[in-house]
């Protein structure tokens, strides 16, 4: 199941956007009882911290890695490396464990999941933008090659 190199960016977009949307949805569903200016500011802080220090860097790192591939076709799961899949698994296990165990109060779920989910969703959308840029660049190169032959 090999796909074109640029399609790996699209897969990253879909996976991270779906995860981000789901976590954001969980946070927002819990938010109604805890909607205050302070909680909104805390959610924004969570978003900024995760976007700046984790997911923003992750998007840049994996986009650069994918763009550096010399071969055109790759196994469809190569949109991330082993470390990124491990991080994803730990985050999912931890998040599900927190919710099921009841250790995290509903207010925490509302505030933290909203910021985290929004950050994950933005990371997914950034992968989508990078996919669009890669497709546009590849099309421009192809058009240039075709016009040289005329």
How would you describe this protein?
With 150 residues, the protein is mainly alpha-helical. The chain has one domain. The chain is 81% helix and 4% strand. The chain contains 4 helices and 2 strands, in the order βααβαα. It has a two-stranded antiparallel ribbon. α1 runs antiparallel to α4 and α2 packs parallel to α4. The model has no long low-confidence stretch (mean pLDDT 92).
How many structural domains can be distinguished in the coordinates?
Answer: 1
Q: Give the number of helices.
A: 4
**SSE string:** EHHEHH
Mean pLDDT: 92
Features:
150 residues, mainly alpha, 2 strands, elongated
Structure summarized in a few sentences:
This protein has 150 residues and is mainly alpha-helical. It contains four helices and two strands; from the N terminus they run βααβαα.
Topology:
Layout: E1 2-4, H1 5-31, H2 37-68, E2 73-75, H3 82-101, H4 106-148
Helix pairs in contact: 1-4, 2-4
